[in-house]
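We now fix the convention by which a protein and its fold are recorded. The integers have meaning only within a learned vocabulary of local backbone shapes. A record is reproduced here so that you can trace the correspondence yourselves:
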Amino acid sequence: MCSWRWARPLCSRKRRFPHRTSCGWWGGLAGVSQFTRWEEPFWTRELARLSGGKFSADIVPFDRAGIPAAEMLHLLQLGVVPFGTTLMSSLGAQYLQYTAPDLAGLNPDIASLKQSLAAFRPYLEKNLRELHGIEVLAIYTYPAQVIFCKKPIASLAELSGRRVRVSSVGQADFVGALGAVPVSMAFNEMVVSLQNGHVECAITGTMSGNALGLQSLTSHLHTMPLNWGLAVFGANRAAWDALSPDLRALLRSELPKLEAAIWDESARDTVEGIACNTGQDACKSGRKGSMVLVPVSAADERKRQEIFSAHVLPRWLKRCGTRCTEVWGQTVGPARKIPVPASP
């Protein structure tokens, strides 16, 4: 399952330029703007510029390096992957408590997501450091995860009976509550599954779906964000401590700026992704489609709140138990004014 080629030396002196240090990193999903516009340019170009040529880095998207998303946290903890990006939705099998700030149906807009994460972040950083030996360096978000469908849809209720691609247990709970059939699969499996009819709808990012070409495979776009897609960029603590103090200081200064830029881009991509998929003039960086835009109705918003309170949150608490009940009650719950249900 693990290959030691992933564990090549993270920072080594270049033979031709012994004053320079070269590092290797594992970033987010290949082909989406978080990686292509921000992560890759930062590590491959900006780091050298910011350090006056003292440091440089290589970065590879984890899904092209053969690293399963569900294994990244464990590999970081072991140091097999010294620096890498972990999709928080992939932690649901072993560490359900870490998925709290982005549960399906919790955050209908990016402002809500920011509020949820701000309440949860101190807990996350403390636990990853103390329990897993991982130093959190940045937390990114992907654009809003919305619903692409091959056949007409006018409301959430019309998902009933359809097979829908999901990427997390929480998404499965949400669409299952609508009477749909959740089908879990990786990001890079969506195109083939839609083409061969294995699924009729897919939940993914507005611009991420456009990058995959879903605007050519589906006809209707329901714009309610079911969730977003948080990702933690972290370091094995021993690998982090082994970096030179000036490199650590530089990264502590610059990574928050990269994080903020990615959040701003995700907000823009959410809007532009909708514009591109539906063929609007506001589409500048994606590929124009001709999908039918399905706006969020008042009934859909009521349904979102109902499903989250009655299905997603109680089931998450039931699977996780006392640990998540305590975490929710101390972090996201008070911040969002959503108490622990009486009988989860």
